[in-house]
Write a structure and sequence with these properties.
alpha/beta; 7-stranded mixed beta sheet; 19 helices
Length: 540
Protein backbone atom coordinates (compact mmCIF):
# COMPACT_ATOMS: atom_id res chain seq x y z
CA UNK A 1 0.00 0.00 0.00
CA UNK A 2 1.40 3.40 -1.03
CA UNK A 3 2.46 5.92 1.59
CA UNK A 4 0.54 9.19 1.31
CA UNK A 5 3.46 11.27 2.59
CA UNK A 6 5.60 10.43 -0.44
CA UNK A 7 2.84 11.58 -2.81
CA UNK A 8 1.89 14.87 -1.18
CA UNK A 9 5.12 16.16 0.39
CA UNK A 10 5.71 19.81 -0.58
CA UNK A 11 2.86 19.64 -3.12
CA UNK A 12 -0.29 21.70 -3.75
CA UNK A 13 -3.44 19.67 -3.10
CA UNK A 14 -7.05 20.32 -4.11
CA UNK A 15 -9.71 18.27 -2.32
CA UNK A 16 -13.19 18.23 -3.88
CA UNK A 17 -16.15 17.44 -1.65
CA UNK A 18 -13.88 15.92 0.96
CA UNK A 19 -13.96 15.69 4.74
CA UNK A 20 -12.38 18.53 6.74
CA UNK A 21 -10.66 16.11 9.11
CA UNK A 22 -8.97 14.28 6.23
CA UNK A 23 -8.07 17.57 4.54
CA UNK A 24 -6.41 18.79 7.72
CA UNK A 25 -4.46 15.54 8.03
CA UNK A 26 -3.08 16.00 4.52
CA UNK A 27 -1.66 19.37 5.53
CA UNK A 28 -0.17 17.86 8.66
CA UNK A 29 1.46 15.10 6.61
CA UNK A 30 3.66 17.45 4.58
CA UNK A 31 1.51 19.05 1.89
CA UNK A 32 2.62 22.60 1.11
CA UNK A 33 -0.89 23.91 0.47
CA UNK A 34 -4.34 22.30 0.72
CA UNK A 35 -7.58 23.75 -0.60
CA UNK A 36 -10.95 22.20 0.22
CA UNK A 37 -13.70 22.74 -2.38
CA UNK A 38 -17.07 22.23 -0.74
CA UNK A 39 -20.67 22.87 -1.71
CA UNK A 40 -21.24 24.53 1.65
CA UNK A 41 -20.96 28.12 2.74
CA UNK A 42 -20.17 28.01 6.45
CA UNK A 43 -17.21 25.78 7.29
CA UNK A 44 -14.99 26.88 10.11
CA UNK A 45 -11.43 26.29 8.93
CA UNK A 46 -9.71 28.66 11.32
CA UNK A 47 -8.02 25.88 13.23
CA UNK A 48 -7.22 23.61 10.28
CA UNK A 49 -4.57 25.57 8.34
CA UNK A 50 -6.22 24.87 4.97
CA UNK A 51 -7.98 27.05 2.41
CA UNK A 52 -11.64 26.70 1.55
CA UNK A 53 -13.53 27.59 -1.60
CA UNK A 54 -17.14 26.92 -2.57
CA UNK A 55 -17.92 25.13 -5.80
CA UNK A 56 -21.22 24.41 -7.48
CA UNK A 57 -20.98 22.52 -10.78
CA UNK A 58 -19.29 19.14 -10.36
CA UNK A 59 -17.44 19.55 -13.65
CA UNK A 60 -15.40 22.32 -11.99
CA UNK A 61 -13.29 19.48 -10.55
CA UNK A 62 -11.98 18.84 -14.08
CA UNK A 63 -10.35 22.28 -13.93
CA UNK A 64 -8.08 21.33 -11.03
CA UNK A 65 -4.57 22.74 -11.55
CA UNK A 66 -3.00 21.42 -8.35
CA UNK A 67 -0.19 18.85 -8.19
CA UNK A 68 -2.51 16.25 -6.66
CA UNK A 69 -6.32 16.10 -6.85
CA UNK A 70 -8.59 14.29 -4.38
CA UNK A 71 -12.17 13.41 -5.40
CA UNK A 72 -14.70 12.36 -2.78
CA UNK A 73 -18.48 12.03 -2.52
CA UNK A 74 -20.33 13.64 -5.45
CA UNK A 75 -17.12 14.94 -7.07
CA UNK A 76 -16.30 11.39 -8.21
CA UNK A 77 -19.13 11.71 -10.76
CA UNK A 78 -16.99 14.07 -12.85
CA UNK A 79 -15.19 11.00 -14.25
CA UNK A 80 -18.25 10.02 -16.30
CA UNK A 81 -17.33 12.67 -18.88
CA UNK A 82 -14.15 14.47 -17.80
CA UNK A 83 -10.89 14.06 -15.93
CA UNK A 84 -8.59 16.48 -14.04
CA UNK A 85 -5.85 16.47 -16.69
CA UNK A 86 -3.34 18.82 -15.03
CA UNK A 87 -2.49 16.92 -11.79
CA UNK A 88 0.01 14.10 -11.99
CA UNK A 89 -1.99 12.10 -9.46
CA UNK A 90 -5.72 11.83 -8.82
CA UNK A 91 -7.04 9.97 -5.76
CA UNK A 92 -10.58 8.60 -5.43
CA UNK A 93 -12.00 7.68 -2.04
CA UNK A 94 -13.00 4.01 -1.98
CA UNK A 95 -16.42 3.72 -0.32
CA UNK A 96 -20.01 2.71 -1.02
CA UNK A 97 -21.25 5.87 -2.72
CA UNK A 98 -23.77 6.34 -5.53
CA UNK A 99 -21.28 8.61 -7.26
CA UNK A 100 -19.12 5.55 -7.98
CA UNK A 101 -21.86 4.12 -10.23
CA UNK A 102 -21.33 6.98 -12.69
CA UNK A 103 -17.66 7.64 -12.00
CA UNK A 104 -16.61 4.03 -12.55
CA UNK A 105 -17.97 4.08 -16.13
CA UNK A 106 -15.65 6.90 -17.13
CA UNK A 107 -12.76 5.46 -15.12
CA UNK A 108 -13.00 2.05 -16.83
CA UNK A 109 -13.08 3.71 -20.25
CA UNK A 110 -9.91 5.70 -19.47
CA UNK A 111 -8.15 2.61 -18.15
CA UNK A 112 -9.02 0.65 -21.31
CA UNK A 113 -7.81 3.50 -23.53
CA UNK A 114 -4.55 3.70 -21.59
CA UNK A 115 -5.11 7.32 -20.53
CA UNK A 116 -4.62 6.59 -16.82
CA UNK A 117 -3.25 3.72 -14.79
CA UNK A 118 -3.88 2.51 -11.25
CA UNK A 119 -0.78 2.96 -9.10
CA UNK A 120 -2.25 1.28 -6.06
CA UNK A 121 -4.30 1.97 -2.94
CA UNK A 122 -3.38 4.64 -0.39
CA UNK A 123 -4.50 4.67 3.23
CA UNK A 124 -5.11 8.07 4.85
CA UNK A 125 -5.86 8.60 8.55
CA UNK A 126 -7.72 11.78 9.49
CA UNK A 127 -6.80 13.96 12.47
CA UNK A 128 -8.89 11.74 14.73
CA UNK A 129 -7.13 8.55 13.62
CA UNK A 130 -10.01 7.28 11.46
CA UNK A 131 -8.67 5.57 8.35
CA UNK A 132 -9.90 5.64 4.76
CA UNK A 133 -8.65 4.05 1.53
CA UNK A 134 -8.11 5.88 -1.74
CA UNK A 135 -7.50 4.62 -5.27
CA UNK A 136 -4.36 6.26 -6.69
CA UNK A 137 -4.44 7.11 -10.41
CA UNK A 138 -1.57 8.40 -12.53
CA UNK A 139 -2.06 10.14 -15.86
CA UNK A 140 -0.59 8.51 -18.97
CA UNK A 141 -0.24 9.39 -22.61
CA UNK A 142 -0.28 13.19 -22.38
CA UNK A 143 1.78 15.77 -20.56
CA UNK A 144 -0.01 17.89 -18.00
CA UNK A 145 -0.32 21.58 -18.76
CA UNK A 146 0.55 23.58 -15.70
CA UNK A 147 -0.59 27.21 -15.64
CA UNK A 148 2.22 29.80 -15.54
CA UNK A 149 3.17 31.12 -12.12
CA UNK A 150 4.66 34.37 -10.88
CA UNK A 151 7.54 33.54 -8.51
CA UNK A 152 6.91 34.96 -5.06
CA UNK A 153 10.47 36.33 -4.98
CA UNK A 154 9.49 38.64 -7.84
CA UNK A 155 6.09 39.53 -6.40
CA UNK A 156 3.20 41.51 -7.80
CA UNK A 157 4.73 44.98 -7.43
CA UNK A 158 7.96 44.15 -9.27
CA UNK A 159 6.05 42.23 -11.92
CA UNK A 160 3.73 45.17 -12.63
CA UNK A 161 6.74 47.50 -12.85
CA UNK A 162 8.37 45.18 -15.37
CA UNK A 163 5.19 45.04 -17.48
CA UNK A 164 5.04 48.84 -17.61
CA UNK A 165 8.77 49.31 -18.20
CA UNK A 166 8.67 46.88 -21.12
CA UNK A 167 5.56 48.55 -22.58
CA UNK A 168 3.64 45.30 -22.40
CA UNK A 169 0.13 45.77 -23.81
CA UNK A 170 -1.91 44.20 -21.02
CA UNK A 171 -4.62 44.64 -18.41
CA UNK A 172 -5.65 42.80 -15.25
CA UNK A 173 -9.13 41.55 -16.09
CA UNK A 174 -10.93 41.45 -12.74
CA UNK A 175 -10.60 41.33 -8.95
CA UNK A 176 -7.83 43.91 -9.07
CA UNK A 177 -9.22 46.16 -6.31
CA UNK A 178 -6.78 44.96 -3.63
CA UNK A 179 -3.59 44.89 -5.72
CA UNK A 180 -0.77 44.35 -4.96
CA UNK A 181 -2.55 41.97 -2.57
CA UNK A 182 -4.61 39.17 -4.09
CA UNK A 183 -8.38 39.35 -3.98
CA UNK A 184 -8.40 36.25 -1.79
CA UNK A 185 -5.92 33.83 -0.26
CA UNK A 186 -4.40 31.36 -2.75
CA UNK A 187 -6.03 33.33 -5.57
CA UNK A 188 -4.74 33.94 -9.07
CA UNK A 189 -4.46 36.88 -11.48
CA UNK A 190 -6.11 36.85 -14.91
CA UNK A 191 -4.34 39.01 -17.50
CA UNK A 192 -5.34 39.93 -21.05
CA UNK A 193 -2.42 40.63 -23.40
CA UNK A 194 -1.67 41.15 -27.05
CA UNK A 195 -0.52 37.90 -28.66
CA UNK A 196 3.11 38.99 -29.09
CA UNK A 197 3.28 40.27 -25.51
CA UNK A 198 1.91 37.01 -24.13
CA UNK A 199 5.00 35.32 -25.60
CA UNK A 200 7.26 37.95 -23.99
CA UNK A 201 5.62 37.48 -20.58
CA UNK A 202 5.90 33.69 -20.75
CA UNK A 203 9.58 34.00 -21.66
CA UNK A 204 10.11 36.36 -18.71
CA UNK A 205 8.47 33.89 -16.32
CA UNK A 206 10.50 31.02 -17.74
CA UNK A 207 13.75 32.97 -17.41
CA UNK A 208 12.96 33.75 -13.76
CA UNK A 209 11.52 30.44 -12.60
CA UNK A 210 14.61 29.94 -10.44
CA UNK A 211 13.16 32.67 -8.17
CA UNK A 212 10.27 30.44 -7.17
CA UNK A 213 9.70 30.45 -3.42
CA UNK A 214 7.65 27.25 -3.33
CA UNK A 215 4.38 26.11 -4.78
CA UNK A 216 2.18 27.61 -2.08
CA UNK A 217 3.84 31.04 -2.23
CA UNK A 218 4.00 31.55 -6.00
CA UNK A 219 0.99 33.11 -7.74
CA UNK A 220 -0.90 31.41 -10.56
CA UNK A 221 -1.42 33.54 -13.65
CA UNK A 222 -4.05 33.24 -16.33
CA UNK A 223 -2.51 34.66 -19.52
CA UNK A 224 -5.11 35.26 -22.24
CA UNK A 225 -4.12 36.31 -25.77
CA UNK A 226 -6.34 39.02 -27.26
CA UNK A 227 -6.56 37.38 -30.68
CA UNK A 228 -6.86 33.86 -29.36
CA UNK A 229 -4.61 31.00 -30.39
CA UNK A 230 -5.01 28.31 -33.02
CA UNK A 231 -7.16 25.44 -31.76
CA UNK A 232 -8.64 27.36 -28.82
CA UNK A 233 -11.68 29.53 -28.23
CA UNK A 234 -10.58 33.15 -27.77
CA UNK A 235 -11.11 34.21 -24.15
CA UNK A 236 -13.02 37.23 -25.46
CA UNK A 237 -13.96 38.02 -29.07
CA UNK A 238 -10.73 39.46 -30.53
CA UNK A 239 -12.22 42.80 -31.59
CA UNK A 240 -13.61 43.34 -28.09
CA UNK A 241 -10.37 42.18 -26.47
CA UNK A 242 -8.38 44.69 -28.52
CA UNK A 243 -10.93 47.36 -27.63
CA UNK A 244 -10.42 46.58 -23.94
CA UNK A 245 -6.66 46.93 -24.29
CA UNK A 246 -7.05 50.23 -26.15
CA UNK A 247 -9.43 51.59 -23.48
CA UNK A 248 -7.41 50.40 -20.45
CA UNK A 249 -6.88 52.82 -17.56
CA UNK A 250 -4.49 53.03 -14.61
CA UNK A 251 -5.38 50.83 -11.65
CA UNK A 252 -4.10 49.95 -8.17
CA UNK A 253 -0.35 49.41 -7.63
CA UNK A 254 0.55 50.73 -11.06
CA UNK A 255 -1.54 48.12 -12.87
CA UNK A 256 -3.54 48.55 -16.06
CA UNK A 257 -7.24 47.62 -15.75
CA UNK A 258 -10.37 47.84 -17.94
CA UNK A 259 -12.21 51.13 -18.13
CA UNK A 260 -15.38 50.99 -15.98
CA UNK A 261 -17.76 50.10 -18.83
CA UNK A 262 -15.46 47.42 -20.28
CA UNK A 263 -14.95 46.07 -16.76
CA UNK A 264 -18.71 45.59 -16.38
CA UNK A 265 -19.25 44.06 -19.81
CA UNK A 266 -16.27 41.70 -19.61
CA UNK A 267 -17.24 40.58 -16.11
CA UNK A 268 -20.80 39.74 -17.18
CA UNK A 269 -19.35 37.91 -20.20
CA UNK A 270 -17.13 35.88 -17.87
CA UNK A 271 -19.98 34.97 -15.52
CA UNK A 272 -22.40 33.95 -18.29
CA UNK A 273 -20.38 32.34 -21.03
CA UNK A 274 -17.01 31.08 -19.93
CA UNK A 275 -16.54 27.34 -19.53
CA UNK A 276 -17.96 25.86 -16.37
CA UNK A 277 -19.55 29.15 -15.29
CA UNK A 278 -23.18 29.74 -16.30
CA UNK A 279 -25.41 28.28 -13.59
CA UNK A 280 -22.38 27.92 -11.26
CA UNK A 281 -22.17 31.74 -11.10
CA UNK A 282 -25.19 31.78 -8.78
CA UNK A 283 -27.27 34.20 -10.88
CA UNK A 284 -31.02 33.44 -11.23
CA UNK A 285 -32.19 31.93 -14.54
CA UNK A 286 -35.58 31.01 -15.96
CA UNK A 287 -34.09 27.69 -17.04
CA UNK A 288 -33.25 26.54 -13.51
CA UNK A 289 -35.62 26.50 -10.55
CA UNK A 290 -32.92 26.57 -7.90
CA UNK A 291 -30.10 29.12 -8.04
CA UNK A 292 -26.62 27.96 -7.00
CA UNK A 293 -26.22 28.99 -3.34
CA UNK A 294 -22.45 28.74 -3.14
CA UNK A 295 -20.85 30.34 -6.20
CA UNK A 296 -17.09 30.81 -6.27
CA UNK A 297 -17.61 34.59 -6.07
CA UNK A 298 -20.55 36.93 -5.48
CA UNK A 299 -20.93 37.52 -9.21
CA UNK A 300 -24.31 39.26 -9.13
CA UNK A 301 -23.15 41.54 -6.29
CA UNK A 302 -20.04 42.55 -8.23
CA UNK A 303 -22.12 43.16 -11.37
CA UNK A 304 -24.53 45.44 -9.52
CA UNK A 305 -21.67 47.44 -8.00
CA UNK A 306 -19.99 47.86 -11.40
CA UNK A 307 -23.28 48.82 -13.05
CA UNK A 308 -23.83 51.52 -10.48
CA UNK A 309 -20.50 53.12 -11.38
CA UNK A 310 -21.47 53.52 -15.05
CA UNK A 311 -25.13 54.25 -14.27
CA UNK A 312 -26.76 51.36 -16.17
CA UNK A 313 -29.25 48.62 -15.22
CA UNK A 314 -28.15 45.42 -16.97
CA UNK A 315 -30.72 43.18 -15.24
CA UNK A 316 -30.96 40.63 -12.46
CA UNK A 317 -31.22 37.30 -14.30
CA UNK A 318 -28.86 35.52 -16.65
CA UNK A 319 -31.24 36.07 -19.54
CA UNK A 320 -31.56 39.80 -18.82
CA UNK A 321 -27.78 40.11 -18.59
CA UNK A 322 -27.40 38.23 -21.87
CA UNK A 323 -29.86 40.60 -23.57
CA UNK A 324 -27.91 43.54 -22.17
CA UNK A 325 -24.65 42.20 -23.62
CA UNK A 326 -26.36 41.60 -26.96
CA UNK A 327 -27.54 45.23 -27.03
CA UNK A 328 -23.94 46.33 -26.36
CA UNK A 329 -22.48 44.09 -29.07
CA UNK A 330 -20.86 41.77 -26.50
CA UNK A 331 -22.84 38.54 -26.98
CA UNK A 332 -20.62 35.88 -28.66
CA UNK A 333 -21.47 34.63 -32.13
CA UNK A 334 -23.33 31.33 -32.33
CA UNK A 335 -20.26 29.37 -33.49
CA UNK A 336 -18.45 30.43 -30.32
CA UNK A 337 -21.51 29.75 -28.15
CA UNK A 338 -21.80 26.26 -29.66
CA UNK A 339 -18.33 25.37 -28.40
CA UNK A 340 -18.91 26.97 -25.00
CA UNK A 341 -22.14 24.97 -24.65
CA UNK A 342 -20.11 21.74 -24.32
CA UNK A 343 -19.18 22.69 -20.74
CA UNK A 344 -21.67 25.45 -19.93
CA UNK A 345 -25.18 24.11 -19.36
CA UNK A 346 -26.81 27.54 -19.31
CA UNK A 347 -25.38 28.40 -22.74
CA UNK A 348 -26.75 25.11 -24.05
CA UNK A 349 -30.20 25.66 -22.52
CA UNK A 350 -30.35 29.26 -23.70
CA UNK A 351 -29.22 28.76 -27.30
CA UNK A 352 -29.17 25.09 -28.32
CA UNK A 353 -31.75 23.10 -26.33
CA UNK A 354 -33.97 20.64 -28.18
CA UNK A 355 -37.24 22.18 -29.20
CA UNK A 356 -35.90 25.14 -31.17
CA UNK A 357 -37.36 23.48 -34.28
CA UNK A 358 -36.38 23.30 -37.92
CA UNK A 359 -34.61 20.60 -39.96
CA UNK A 360 -30.96 19.77 -39.35
CA UNK A 361 -28.01 18.77 -41.51
CA UNK A 362 -27.03 22.23 -42.75
CA UNK A 363 -23.45 23.49 -42.52
CA UNK A 364 -21.21 26.20 -43.95
CA UNK A 365 -17.67 25.21 -44.93
CA UNK A 366 -15.05 27.92 -45.41
CA UNK A 367 -11.77 27.26 -47.24
CA UNK A 368 -8.81 29.48 -46.47
CA UNK A 369 -6.97 31.74 -48.91
CA UNK A 370 -4.02 29.44 -49.52
CA UNK A 371 -6.35 26.57 -50.51
CA UNK A 372 -8.01 28.81 -53.11
CA UNK A 373 -4.66 30.09 -54.37
CA UNK A 374 -3.44 26.52 -54.95
CA UNK A 375 -6.59 25.68 -56.98
CA UNK A 376 -7.76 22.96 -54.59
CA UNK A 377 -11.44 23.93 -54.56
CA UNK A 378 -12.59 21.38 -57.16
CA UNK A 379 -10.92 18.57 -55.19
CA UNK A 380 -12.64 19.79 -52.01
CA UNK A 381 -16.03 19.80 -53.76
CA UNK A 382 -15.54 16.17 -54.85
CA UNK A 383 -14.71 15.09 -51.29
CA UNK A 384 -17.78 16.92 -49.94
CA UNK A 385 -20.09 15.25 -52.44
CA UNK A 386 -18.48 11.83 -51.95
CA UNK A 387 -19.32 12.08 -48.24
CA UNK A 388 -23.04 12.45 -48.99
CA UNK A 389 -23.34 16.25 -48.79
CA UNK A 390 -25.12 18.41 -51.36
CA UNK A 391 -23.66 21.85 -52.13
CA UNK A 392 -26.46 24.41 -52.46
CA UNK A 393 -24.37 27.62 -52.47
CA UNK A 394 -20.78 28.44 -53.40
CA UNK A 395 -19.02 31.80 -53.34
CA UNK A 396 -15.50 33.20 -53.68
CA UNK A 397 -15.38 36.06 -51.18
CA UNK A 398 -14.40 39.57 -52.22
CA UNK A 399 -11.80 41.46 -50.18
CA UNK A 400 -14.56 43.34 -48.38
CA UNK A 401 -16.43 40.10 -47.65
CA UNK A 402 -13.21 38.49 -46.37
CA UNK A 403 -12.74 41.34 -43.93
CA UNK A 404 -16.31 41.12 -42.65
CA UNK A 405 -16.20 37.32 -42.28
CA UNK A 406 -12.79 37.27 -40.59
CA UNK A 407 -13.83 39.89 -38.05
CA UNK A 408 -17.29 38.54 -37.18
CA UNK A 409 -17.10 34.75 -37.59
CA UNK A 410 -15.08 32.07 -35.75
CA UNK A 411 -14.70 34.42 -32.81
CA UNK A 412 -12.55 36.67 -35.00
CA UNK A 413 -9.66 34.18 -34.72
CA UNK A 414 -8.46 32.60 -38.00
CA UNK A 415 -4.83 31.88 -37.18
CA UNK A 416 -1.65 33.59 -38.32
CA UNK A 417 1.89 33.06 -39.57
CA UNK A 418 4.92 32.99 -37.25
CA UNK A 419 5.52 36.69 -37.99
CA UNK A 420 1.97 37.53 -36.91
CA UNK A 421 0.62 38.20 -40.42
CA UNK A 422 -2.64 36.58 -41.58
CA UNK A 423 -1.74 36.15 -45.27
CA UNK A 424 -3.12 32.82 -46.46
CA UNK A 425 -5.21 32.21 -43.32
CA UNK A 426 -8.27 34.35 -44.03
CA UNK A 427 -11.57 32.91 -45.36
CA UNK A 428 -11.70 32.81 -49.16
CA UNK A 429 -14.38 30.40 -50.39
CA UNK A 430 -17.74 29.71 -48.71
CA UNK A 431 -19.78 26.56 -49.35
CA UNK A 432 -23.30 25.93 -47.99
CA UNK A 433 -23.81 22.18 -47.76
CA UNK A 434 -26.59 19.80 -46.68
CA UNK A 435 -26.06 16.30 -45.30
CA UNK A 436 -28.59 14.36 -47.37
CA UNK A 437 -28.94 11.65 -44.74
CA UNK A 438 -29.13 13.85 -41.66
CA UNK A 439 -31.69 16.22 -43.20
CA UNK A 440 -34.14 13.31 -43.52
CA UNK A 441 -34.05 12.50 -39.81
CA UNK A 442 -36.31 13.90 -37.05
CA UNK A 443 -34.57 17.07 -35.74
CA UNK A 444 -34.94 16.04 -32.09
CA UNK A 445 -32.81 12.95 -32.66
CA UNK A 446 -30.40 14.30 -35.24
CA UNK A 447 -29.10 17.45 -33.52
CA UNK A 448 -26.01 15.75 -32.11
CA UNK A 449 -25.61 13.44 -35.09
CA UNK A 450 -25.26 16.33 -37.53
CA UNK A 451 -22.26 17.58 -35.53
CA UNK A 452 -20.67 14.13 -35.83
CA UNK A 453 -21.25 13.96 -39.61
CA UNK A 454 -19.96 17.50 -40.18
CA UNK A 455 -16.87 16.82 -38.07
CA UNK A 456 -16.21 13.62 -40.03
CA UNK A 457 -16.35 15.53 -43.33
CA UNK A 458 -14.15 18.30 -41.94
CA UNK A 459 -11.55 15.74 -40.84
CA UNK A 460 -11.61 14.19 -44.32
CA UNK A 461 -10.88 17.56 -45.90
CA UNK A 462 -8.15 18.35 -43.39
CA UNK A 463 -6.45 15.00 -43.92
CA UNK A 464 -6.24 15.79 -47.65
CA UNK A 465 -5.23 19.45 -47.55
CA UNK A 466 -3.82 20.53 -44.19
CA UNK A 467 -0.16 21.43 -44.10
CA UNK A 468 2.02 20.92 -41.04
CA UNK A 469 1.72 24.56 -40.03
CA UNK A 470 -1.54 25.57 -41.75
CA UNK A 471 -5.17 24.52 -41.45
CA UNK A 472 -7.22 24.41 -44.63
CA UNK A 473 -10.87 24.48 -43.63
CA UNK A 474 -13.30 25.72 -41.02
CA UNK A 475 -16.98 24.83 -40.70
CA UNK A 476 -20.01 25.43 -38.56
CA UNK A 477 -20.92 22.53 -36.29
CA UNK A 478 -24.69 22.54 -36.70
CA UNK A 479 -27.64 24.04 -38.58
CA UNK A 480 -28.43 26.55 -35.85
CA UNK A 481 -25.14 28.42 -36.09
CA UNK A 482 -24.99 28.02 -39.88
CA UNK A 483 -27.69 30.64 -40.39
CA UNK A 484 -25.46 33.28 -38.86
CA UNK A 485 -22.72 32.43 -41.37
CA UNK A 486 -25.19 32.51 -44.25
CA UNK A 487 -26.42 35.95 -43.17
CA UNK A 488 -22.83 37.23 -43.26
CA UNK A 489 -21.64 35.50 -46.44
CA UNK A 490 -24.91 35.36 -48.45
CA UNK A 491 -26.86 38.34 -47.07
CA UNK A 492 -29.36 38.56 -49.93
CA UNK A 493 -30.06 34.83 -50.20
CA UNK A 494 -31.09 33.79 -46.68
CA UNK A 495 -34.78 33.25 -47.48
CA UNK A 496 -34.00 31.37 -50.69
CA UNK A 497 -31.55 29.07 -48.85
CA UNK A 498 -34.18 28.39 -46.17
CA UNK A 499 -36.78 27.37 -48.76
CA UNK A 500 -34.33 25.06 -50.53
CA UNK A 501 -33.15 23.51 -47.27
CA UNK A 502 -36.68 22.88 -46.02
CA UNK A 503 -37.63 21.32 -49.34
CA UNK A 504 -34.79 18.80 -48.97
CA UNK A 505 -36.13 17.87 -45.51
CA UNK A 506 -39.57 16.84 -46.79
CA UNK A 507 -39.31 13.05 -46.87
CA UNK A 508 -41.50 10.13 -45.81
CA UNK A 509 -41.71 8.85 -42.24
CA UNK A 510 -40.28 5.51 -43.45
CA UNK A 511 -37.21 7.28 -44.82
CA UNK A 512 -36.67 9.13 -41.53
CA UNK A 513 -36.99 5.88 -39.58
CA UNK A 514 -34.46 4.18 -41.87
CA UNK A 515 -31.87 6.87 -41.14
CA UNK A 516 -32.64 6.83 -37.41
CA UNK A 517 -31.94 3.08 -37.21
CA UNK A 518 -28.71 3.21 -39.22
CA UNK A 519 -25.65 1.64 -37.50
CA UNK A 520 -23.67 4.88 -37.92
CA UNK A 521 -26.29 6.92 -36.06
CA UNK A 522 -26.64 4.36 -33.27
CA UNK A 523 -22.85 4.22 -32.80
CA UNK A 524 -22.65 8.01 -32.63
CA UNK A 525 -25.48 8.23 -30.08
CA UNK A 526 -23.79 5.76 -27.75
CA UNK A 527 -20.44 7.55 -27.96
CA UNK A 528 -21.30 11.26 -28.02
CA UNK A 529 -24.93 12.00 -27.22
CA UNK A 530 -24.80 10.02 -23.97
CA UNK A 531 -21.70 11.97 -22.87
CA UNK A 532 -23.40 15.32 -23.55
CA UNK A 533 -26.48 14.16 -21.65
CA UNK A 534 -24.36 13.06 -18.68
CA UNK A 535 -22.64 16.45 -18.50
CA UNK A 536 -25.91 18.38 -18.50
CA UNK A 537 -27.78 15.96 -16.23
CA UNK A 538 -25.21 15.18 -13.55
CA UNK A 539 -22.24 17.59 -13.70
CA UNK A 540 -23.73 21.10 -13.95
Amino acid sequence: MKEIEAIIKNKILDVYDGDINITSALKANGADQVTLYKNEENINLKDYNVFKRPYGAILEAADCVADVCFLDNRAIKVLIAMYPSTPKYVLLRISLQRSWILGSIGLIRRLLLGLVKIEGVVKISDINGKGSKWLLLKQKGMSSQKPPVLPANIGVVKFLKWLNAENINYLVLRFYEKLPELYREAGDIDILLSNKDKVRVRNYLEDNKHLSAGVSKDIRLGLHAASGEEGTIPYYPPLLAKQMLDNAVDGPAGSRIPCPRDALLSFIYHALYHAKKGYAAGIPSKFKKLTEKHPENNYIGVIKAMAKVVNVSPGNTMEELDNFLASEGWRPKLDTLAKLADTNAWVYDRFFSIGQGGPVGLSVFILREWVHEQNLIDRAVKIIEKNGFKIIRKKVLSEEEKKLASETLRGGSWGNNPDGSTIGWLPAVTLVVVDMKCVKMPPTYAKGYEHYKIRTLKNSLRSQFDMEDKGSVHSTDNSHESWEYIEVCFPGEVDAVKREFQALAHVSILSKLKQFLSPTYIKHSLRYSVREYMIRKFLT
